[in-house]
Specification:
The structure is a single chain. The protein is an all-beta fold and 139 residues long. It has one domain: Jelly Rolls, CATH 2.60.120. It has no helices and ten strands. A hairpin with a 6-residue loop joins strand 5 and strand 6. It is globular and about 40 Å long.
């Protein structure tokens, strides 16, 4: 498993973008099957502004997977990060996400929360293949 800096993922040869523009995405997992943590962990450093996790999954027969979005201040103690759906952007929850069909869903991560590192944990996975990408704004 690798820890990938959100800021290091930016292309240093490009001119800086506006402070509120998003940094390049960090891939947490591609075509992940089974149970456990995502292949990579994002490190957002001192950034605490708006962020999003995009989960894309392919479903087989009778699919289901439970996903917990996990944050950590120190990279060792993990807790569920508050997220909201795009349709209800002010309604945050820390509940586990149950996915039962193929979809691409954006989860908005609450700003100002005390986590530096982000990963996702998959459990009860039956016939689901998951890709997860993290996006962080510069603010």
């Amino acid at each position: 498993m690798a820890t990938i800096s959100v800021q290091a993922a930016a292309d240093p040869t490009r001119a800086p973008s506006a402070p509120s523009s998003p940094l390049p995405g960090v891939n947490l997992a591609t075509a992940l099957t089974g149970n456990g943590d995502t292949t990579n962990t994002a490190d957002r450093g001192g950034l605490t502004g708006p962020a999003a996790l995009v989960i894309t999954n392919a479903a087989g027969a009778t699919p289901t997977v439970t996903v917990n979005i996990l944050g950590s201040a120190d990279g060792s103690s993990w807790f569920n990060v508050p997220y909201a759906l795009v349709a209800t952007p002010s309604t945050f929850t820390v509940a586990a996400i149950t996915i039962t069909a193929a979809a691409t869903t954006t989860y908005l991560l609450q700003s100002g929360q005390p986590w530096r590192y982000l990963k996702a944990n998959l459990s009860a996975n039956t016939n689901e293949t998951v890709t997860a990408d993290f996006y962080q704004s510069r603010s």
